[in-house]
């Protein structure tokens, strides 16, 4: 592996990890275009598989950091992760056979919808009994979120965070921390499915992981500072989604044209 490509992978991994630590999502969807267009992986499905392998490790490290900071609601996080993995395995099997550029274009549309919903929502007052009363709703939302995660080859944090907010009324910072367990689990399922088909560049993934861990620590510090400012994190979350969606539309439609 060339030194230049290794350093580029490290830098791109840092950006993806920062997004994971800050908003609990965006790491995988940033990883795929960065690996494809900046690192130069070449094949879209290899970029998806490599990104999933890298993000699963980065998400786990970021999850542990949030857990130490007290930002994880273990009941909801565990239910979402366990139920959603089944959907991720099914979705990734379908996604491997889908045209890559059309896959990215569809994902861009989904990102715009989720970003708009996040901007329209307002922070709800946390409910003291949300862990006990919302298990069924969390499980019901986890399966389709897992399928979407596997199909698009992403960790799905930008889907998981709104689902947790809607189902549990937990604070935004807790939804971010809790979502990372499911992001890690979904990414493991997706990466395993792609690895079976030889669609992971392991040398690139190793450097991407190293950058992701470092970037995630910085993202966590920023998230902790922003959590007291009401809906600012929600706006940051939506802004990142819109920016990446615009980039995806530009690249995917240009390639199809």
How would you describe this structure to a colleague?
With 257 residues, the chain is mainly alpha-helical. It has one domain (3-256). It has helices at residues 3-23, 27-39, 44-68, 74-95, 100-120, 130-133, 135-152, 157-168, 172-196, 202-226, 232-256. It is globular.
Low-confidence stretches: none
Shape: globular
Strand tally: 0
Helix share, percent? over 70%
Overview in brief:
By secondary structure, the protein is mainly α.
List the helices and strands and how they pair.
Layout: H1 3-23, H2 27-39, H3 44-68, H4 74-95, H5 100-120, H6 130-133, H7 135-152, H8 157-168, H9 172-196, H10 202-226, H11 232-256
Helix pairs in contact: 1-2, 1-3, 1-9, 1-10, 2-3, 3-9, 3-10, 4-7, 4-9, 5-11, 7-8, 8-9
Primary descriptors:
single chain; 257 residues; globular; 82% helix
